[in-house]
Amino acid sequence: MNLATVDIVIILCYIVITLLFGFYVAKKASKDIKSYFLGGNEIPWYYLGLSNASGMFDVSGTMWTVTILFVYGIKSAWLPWLWPVWNQVFIMIFMAAWLRRSNVITGAQWITYRFGSAMGAKLSHIIVTIFAVTSTLGFIAYFFEGIGKFAIIFFPWDLSIDLGLFTVASEQSYALIIIGITTLYTLKGGMYSVVGTEVIQFVIMTISCLVIGYIAFTTVTAEQIAVATPENWNNLFFDMKLDLDWTGYIDSVNEKIEKDGFSLFGFLFMMMIFKGIFASLAGPVPSYDMQRVLSTKNEVEASKMSAFTIVVLFIPRYLMITGFAVLGLVYLGPELQQAGIDVDFETILPVAIHRFVPIGFKGLLLAGLLAAFMGTFAAFINAAPAYIVNDIYKKYINPNASDKTYVKYGYLSSIIIVLVGVIGGFFASSINELTIWLTSALYGGYAAANVLKWIWWRFNSYGYFGGMLAGLIAATIIPIIFPDTTSIYLFPAILLVSFIGCFIGVTLGKQDDIEVLKNFYKTTRPWGWWQPVINAIQKENPDFSPNKNFWKDMFNCGVGIIWQMTFVLVPMYLIIKEYYSMAFAILLMIITSIILKKTWYDKLKTK
User: Fold this and answer.
1) For 107-144, what is each residue's pLDDT tens digit?
2) pLDDT (average), residues 461-485
3) Residues 6 or more apart from 479 whose CB is under 8 A from it?
4) Where are the transmembrane segments (predicted)?
5) Which pLDDT tens digit goes with each residue over 312-325?
6) What is the C-alpha separation between 144 and 138, in angstroms, rounded?
7) Percentage of the chain modeled with pLDDT above 90
8) Is the pLDDT reported for residue 79 higher than 80?
9) Pick from 196, 172, 194, 198: which is nearest to 183 by CA?
10) How far apart are the C-alpha atoms of 378 and 129, rounded to whole Å?
C-alpha cells in the first residue's frame, strides 16, 4: 500500500519541523533540571492541557479504541474505564490541587515530602522510582507494537534485517526509526519540546479528526450500519452477558470477544468500577500525566489544566474513531468475513486510512497520528528519566553536581530506557494484551499503597514500601500463574496482596515523624483519617480548618464522570446517526456542565 508523493512530503515536513523545534528550545530547556523536566513551571495551563490531550491521543491507543468500537459497538464507550479514563475527573476535582501543592519535580521526590527522609522513606523512594521506570518500559513496548503495525501498512520499503540469530521484521524497523527520531527531539528540548510539539500535534489531529468524521458522516448511512452490524451493536446498555452475536456478519469477531475475555460484560463492568475507584483515588501514576500537573504554575491552574484536557480531547478523537470504525464495518466487513479466522483486528485503523482517506488529507492524518505517537512517547521518555536523575543520581550518588551534569544524565537515562523498552517490544504479542496488563495487573500493584498514602495518617513509609513491593511482585507473578485469565479479573488478587504488604509494613514499622506529617497535611490538605495530625496542628494554630470536602468532592466526581462520558457519546451517536440519543447526551452535557460550574469551578480559588 504505497503513499502518494504529496503525502510522503507532508509527513517528512512534519518530522523536520518537529526536530527543528526540539533543537530550537534546547538551550532554554538545558538551563537547569527544573526547566528540563517541568518547563520551569512557566508554561500556561491551557498549553499543558492541549499537550496532555495530545499525549493521550497515541497511535496504539487509537488503534485499540477503533478495534473495540468495531467489535463491541457503542458498548465500547465503557471499555476505556479499564484505565480508568475517568481518573482524569478525580484529578480535575481534587487530586491535581493536592499534588501541585507539594512543589516537587517528580512523584518519587513527593515521597520525601510525605514520609520524610528516614530509612523507610528511602526504601519507598526507591520502590516508586522502580515502578515509574517499569511502567514506562511497559508503555514503550506498547508503543513499539502499535507504531510498527501502523507504519507497515503505508510505507512501501521492505526494511526487514536478517541478523543471523533472529530477524528484525520490517514493521519493527519502522518502529525503531520513528522511536529514534522521537527520542532525539525529546532529549534536546525536554518538557518545552514535549509541550510545544504536542500543541502543534493537537492542531493537526483535530483537523484530521474533523475530516474523517465528515467523510464517514457523508459516506455511510444508518441503514448501511444496521445491515453490517448485529443486533444490539448500537445499544449502550447491557445485561450480565454481552448479547452480541457476529455469526453471519464477521464470524471471527466472536472468537476475538472470547479471547478478550469480555463476554461476561456485566461482570467486567463491575470489575472496572471496583478497579477504577482504587486507581483514581491513588492519583496519577508517576509518568507524563503527573509531570503535567507538577509543571503548572499553581494548584488552580493544575485543576483547570486537567478539566481542559477532557474538554478538548474526546469529541474530536471519537469523531475519528467512530468514523473509521463505521467505514471499516460497512466497506471492509465482507472482506473480513471472507478472510475467516486469519484477521488482525488491530490493523483496521491503518487499512481504513489507506482505503478511505483522500490523497493530501492522508498525509495530514498520518502526520497527525505520527505526531500523536511521538507526543505520547516523548512525554513518557521525559518523565521516567526525571526519576532516575532527580531521585537516584542526584539524591544518592552526586547531590552537588552541576545542572549541566544532571541534564546530560537525563539524556543518557532516556536512551537506556528507550533501548530496554524497545527490547521488550520485540516480545510483545498484541496491543490488547499489553493494554490489559498495564491497566489491570501493573496498576493493581500500585493502587493500595497510593490510596492509603493520601487518606490515612498512620500509613508509614514501611507500609508504602511493603505495599508497592508486594504489588509489583504480584503484578508480575499472578498473570504468569493464571495465563489464560484476562488481567482485569486478576486485579482483586493483586490488590489484596498489595494491601497485605501495606499492613505488614505499617505493623512492623514505627510511625513517621509527626513534624513531617504536620507539614504534609498543612500544605496538601487531603480528606481522610488525619485526626491525630489535625489535633497536633490545632495545638499550635487553633484557627486551622481541616478538609471536610469529601462528600462534595465525591458528588462532583460522580457528576464529572457523567459529564466526561457525554463527550465520548455525542460524536459516536452523531456518526452512526442516532440523533435522539445524541440529543439526550447533549442535554446531559449541558446539565452536568452547569452543575460543575457552580459546585466546582466557581470555588477553585477558595479551595
Assistant:
1) 667 888 899 888 888 888 788 777 777 777 777 777 77
2) 88
3) 437, 441, 485, 487, 490
4) 6-26, 47-72, 78-99, 120-144, 164-187, 199-217, 262-285, 306-332, 364-388, 409-428, 434-455, 462-482, 488-508, 554-573, 579-596
5) 889 999 999 999 99
6) 10
7) 34
8) yes
9) 194
10) 18
Amino acid at 365: L
- Asked if CATH classification 3.30.1760 holds for the domain at 5-428+545-606, the reply, yes or no, is no
Q: What mean pLDDT comes out for the span 445-469?
A: 92
For the residues 223-240, what does the mean pLDDT come to?
A: 92
DSSP 513: P
Instruction: Report the relative pairing of strands 167-168 and 161-162 from DSSP bridges.
Output: antiparallel
Nearest-angstrom CA–CA distance, 116 and 464: 12
Handedness of CA 225, 228, 232, 236 (dihedral sign): negative
* Average pLDDT of span 477-489: 83
Burial category of 493 from C-beta neighbours within 10 Å (exposed 0-12, middle 13-18, buried 19 and up): middle
Confidence at residue 304, expressed as pLDDT on a 0 to 100 scale: 93
CB 200 within 8 A of CB 370: no
DSSP 346: G
Q: Which residues, including other chains, have CB under 8 Å from residue 391's CB and lie 6 or more apart?
A: 106, 108, 109, 125, 129
Question: In angstroms, rounded to a whole number, what is the distance separating the alpha carbons of residues 576 and 366?
Answer: 24
Nearest partner of 69 among 329, 353, 262, judged by Cα: 329
- CA 31 to chain CA centroid, nearest Å: 29
DSSP letter at 73 equals G
Contact 53, 309 (CB under 8 A): yes
What pLDDT is attached to residue 78?
Answer: 94
Greatest Cα-to-Cα distance within the chain, rounded to the nearest angstrom: 76
Q: How many helices (H) and strands (E) does the chain have?
A: 27, 2
Positive or negative: CA dihedral 501, 504, 509, 514? positive
Give phi and psi for 529, each to the nearest 5: -95, 85
- Nearest in space to 312 (alpha carbons), one of 54, 91, 90: 54
Q: Quick one: which of 37, 35, 12 has its CA closest to 414?
A: 37
Q: Evaluate the omega torsion of the peptide bond into residue 84 and state whether it is cis, within 30 degrees of 0.
A: yes
Start-to-end CA distance of the chain, whole Å, equals 55
Select from 498, 490, 491 the least CA-distant residue to 452: 498
Backbone φ/ψ region at 544: left (φ over 0), alpha (ψ -120 to 50), beta = beta
Average confidence (pLDDT) over 498-520: 94
Better-scored residue on pLDDT, 159 or 307: 307
* Residue-wise pLDDT tens digits, 37-55: 455 566 788 888 887 777 6
Classify residue 77 as exposed, middle or buried by CB count within 10 Å of its CB (0-12, 13-18, 19+): buried
Angle at the Cα of 399 (from 397 to 404), degrees rounded to 5? Answer: 105
* φ/ψ (deg, to 5) at 460: -100, 180
3-state SS track over 9-69: HHHHHHHHHHHHHHHHCHHHHCCCHHHHHHHHHCCCHHHHHHHHHHHCCCHHHHHHHHHHH
Yes or no: say if 11 and 370 are a contact pair by the CB < 8 Å rule: yes
| Residue 545 buriedness (CB in 10 A; 0-12 / 13-18 / 19+) | exposed
Rounded to the nearest 5°, which phi and psi values hold at 456?
A: -130, 120
517-546 average pLDDT score: 94
Q: Is 317 exposed, middle or buried (0-12, 13-18, 19+ CB in 10 A)?
A: buried
pTM over 0.90? The answer is: no
Whole-number CA gyration radius for the chain: 24
Q: In the chain, what are the domain boundaries?
A: 5-428+545-606
